[in-house]
Design a protein that fits this description.
- The complex is a heterodimer of chains A (271) and B (79).
- Helix content of chain A is 37%, strand content 18%.
- With 271 residues, chain A is of the alpha/beta class.
- Chain A has 2 domains: 52 residues, no CATH class; 213 residues, NAD(P)-binding Rossmann-like Domain (Rossmann fold).
- In chain A, β7 and β8 form a beta hairpin.
- Chain B is globular and about 40 Å long.
- With 79 residues, chain B is mainly beta.
- Helices cover 10% and strands 29% of the residues of chain B.
- Classes of the chains: A alpha/beta (271), B mainly beta (79).
- At the A-B interface, α4, β7, β8, α8 and α9 of A face loops of B.
Chain lengths: 271, 79
């Protein structure tokens, strides 16, 4: 038995509830929203329900975050919290999939709400128009099942990691420069970002550890790389929620689009 | 003994004509460390954030044993 969107929307309207609630209750009694029919060979009804009842915070709605948000929305994640305090400008158009000519000047987090709403009304999207910092990170990220690091600078990534540890929430890191990128899944007990960037507290001002950006300053961020890195990040999110597959924990999955190589590089599990 | 060196992103600029598919194959003496290798190739150590030998995390002080793939990575933070 399937549930088409027009019936879900009618039901939501009649009972004064959100479409998301109709999807969730349909899945609970074994009715598949029609839009997820092509998922069914890979994702069971029970798994689709688990995605529907999950909340994922995506920090950064730019090159990586835009793709991650749309992929998670199409997969049927029930609630996506989008954290971004920036507006779209023309330099975003080369790669940021939520950007468009008509979106110039709009807040990225709010545009994510609009775009996802047009794709999948069964997904709740909450816009958090704030710059993540140590004073607000835990409050903003509290209640998520998974956090996605889709930021564009290194210090803010550490801020998100610190909050994810305090909250006990898994973090999926992604970063890129030129045609290369990396993904790492970090559980609260894992060494995490210091493996990739050095110890946060080890350097003084101006040291590599504290520099805000990496090779992307020289190599730029072309459209192709964020699409692939974001797809890998979104897959990690789904694997964490569904407890499936092998996660990229304690390793850096390194992607080089020019050579076509995707290689795991292993770190130890301890310090 | 021979070592195959692979460089990531901006580190590639330190070896003119670097081929990312092949890396650089060269001979080193026994007891050569990753640090020695960087000096030999004139790659500043402060530009390197991650060292991998045969796919596993290593340090500047680690000695090479030959027939290894050494990967050097700078920090990347774009999104």
């Amino acid at each position: 038995m399937v549930l088409e969107d027009r019936h879900a929307l009618e039901t939501a309207s009649r009972f004064g509830v959100a479409t998301h609630d109709v999807y969730r209750e349909a899945l609970r009694i074994g009715i598949c929203p029609y839009r997820y029919l092509r998922n069914r060979s890979s994702i069971s009804g029970e798994e689709q329900l688990r995605l529907c009842t999950s909340c994922v915070a995506v920090v950064g709605a730019g090159g990586l975050g835009g793709h991650v948000i749309l992929l998670l929305a199409r997969m049927g994640i029930g609630h996506i919290v989008v954290v971004d305090d920036d507006r779209f400008d023309e330099t975003n158009l080369n790669r940021q999939t939520l950007s468009s000519q008509e979106a110039m000047g709009r807040w990225k987090a709010e545009e994510a709400v609009r775009v996802v709403g047009a794709i999948n009304p069964g997904v709740r999207v909450t816009a958090q128009r704030v710059r993540i910092d140590p004073s607000n990170a835990e409050k903003v990220l509290h209640g998520s099942d998974v956090i996605v690091d889709a930021l564009d600078n290194i210090p803010d990534r550490f801020t998100v990691e610190t909050a994810s540890r305090s909250l006990g929430i898994p973090l999926v890191h992604g970063a890129l420069a030129g045609f290369e990128g990396q993904v790492m899944t970090i559980f609260p007990e894992d060494p995490g970002l210091k493996r990739l960037y050095g110890r946060r507290e080890s350097g003084g001002e101006g040291s590599e550890s504290h520099q805000s950006q990496g090779s992307e300053v020289v190599l730029g961020v072309p459209a192709l790389t964020p699409a692939l890195i974001a797809a890998l990040q979104a897959t990690e999110v789904v694997k964490i929620i569904l407890k499936r597959g092998r996660l990229f924990r304690n390793l850096m999955l390194h992607v080089d689009l020019e050579t076509g190589e995707i290689l795991p590089f292993a770190f130890g599990e301890t310090e | 003994m021979s070592v195959n060196l692979f460089l990531s992103s901006t580190l590639r600029q330190y070896i003119p004509g670097y081929d990312p598919s092949e890396g650089v194959l060269f001979s080193v003496d026994r007891k050569t460390t990753v640090s020695d290798l960087c000096r030999l190739m004139q790659i500043p150590q402060d530009k390197i954030k991650i060292i991998m030998i045969n796919g596993r995390n290593a340090s500047f002080d680690d000695e090479l044993r030959g027939d290894e793939r050494v990967g050097l990575f700078p920090p990347i933070g774009g999104g």
